[in-house]
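To whoever picks this up:

The nightly regression suite flagged Rhomboid family intramembrane serine protease as changed. Nothing in the input moved, so I suspect the structure step. Input below, exactly as stored in the fixture:
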Amino acid sequence: MFRALTPIVKNLLLITIGLHVVTSFFMPQLKSLFALYHIESRHFMPFQFVTYMFMHADFWHLFSNMFGLFIFGPLLEQFLGPKKILILWMVCGIGSGILYSGYNVYKINQLNNKVEAFSENPDPEVFNRFVSDNRHLFGPGIYDFIDAYSRNPDDADLIDRAKRNMLGVRDLQANIPMVGASGALFGILIAFGMLFPNTQLFLLFPPMPVRAKYLVLFYGLYTVYHIFVSNPADNVAHFAHLSGLLIGAVLVIYWKKDRRNFY
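Regenerated output under the current build:
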C-alpha cells in the first residue's frame, strides 16, 4: 500500500506529520508561532499564511487531513503530475487562509460595531443578546451579572463592566488561531471529484459505496450549511473548507481548458 505513495504526497505527509511530532513533544511554542491569527492580532505574522497548514490541533485533526491526502493524493499526482499537485495543495491552503482571514475581519468588524453601538446606547437587552450569541466564551457567572445589570440598567460601574466584557470577547475572538491543512485537503477533494467523478469509493461510516462526485457534493453542502447556521461553539473553520473547494475548482477548470498543460 505504501509503495503506491507518489513523491509529493509522501513528502507532504512526512513534513506535516514530522512537524506535528516536533510541536507536540519537543517545541510546542512553535504551534502558536506558526498558527494563523487575525491580521490585526499582535500575534499575526505574514508567513503564517503558509505555516498554519502544517500545524494541527491534535492527533485526530492531523489524521483526518493526512488520511484524505493519503487516499486521494496519489492518483491525482499520477494524473496531474508532481508540479500541479503541489501547486494545488499549496494554493488551496494559502488561498483558504487568506480568504478565511478576510471573513474573520468581517466578523471582528461586526463585533466592533456591536461594542460601539452598546457604548453609545447601553442597554441590558443588547448585552444579553451579545452574551447569547457568544455564550461559549463566557463562564456561568455571567448570568448573575446579567441579572444584576438588568435590575440596575443605569449603574455606571455595571455598564463599564458590560463594555469590558464585550471588548474581552472581541479580543479573544481576534486571537483565536486557525491551524490545519483542511483547506488544502478540500482542494484535493474537489479536484478528485471533478477529474474522477464516477470513481466508486467505499465509505467506512456508513459502510457503503458512493461515487466521488456525490461525496464531494455532500462535503460542499455540509460546509455551506454550517457557514449559514454559524454555531458559535463550533471551532471548525468551515469557511476555509469552502474556500479550498472553490479555489481547487477554479484551478481544475483552468487546467482543463488546455490539456497540453497536464504533465
